[in-house]
Amino acid sequence: MRPRLAALALAPLFSAVLFVSGCGQVEQTASEAANDLAQAGQDAASQAASDIAQAGKDELMRQACRPVQDGTISASDQELISGLLAGAEAAGVRSEVIAQVEQVAQAGGQVPANGVKALQDTCSSAK
């Protein structure tokens, strides 16, 4: 009878040990799931920011390309391009594109034909 009594006395202890070890596993799994979820949120936010930045660059290029489509630059076209220059620099538009926009923007009354052509070519390849 004593062995049976000893087994009954130890049963709650074994249950407690199993419960505690099970809680540790549940805690680890929950922690891993929370970390995975946080990483997924960070990845999504990073991708969204990247998409927004790219959309901004694309819009700046579209606006800078519109005035040179016909191969001529009017004073108002030049003013528009000048206004886009700072935004393009801040948005991280490629430096060679910035240089072309800057050349057109700062040309004064006579925009060099090769500057217009270079910007047209850049605009065509950006599409």
From TrEMBL:
Residues 1-22 form the signal peptide. Keywords: Signal. This is Lipoprotein.
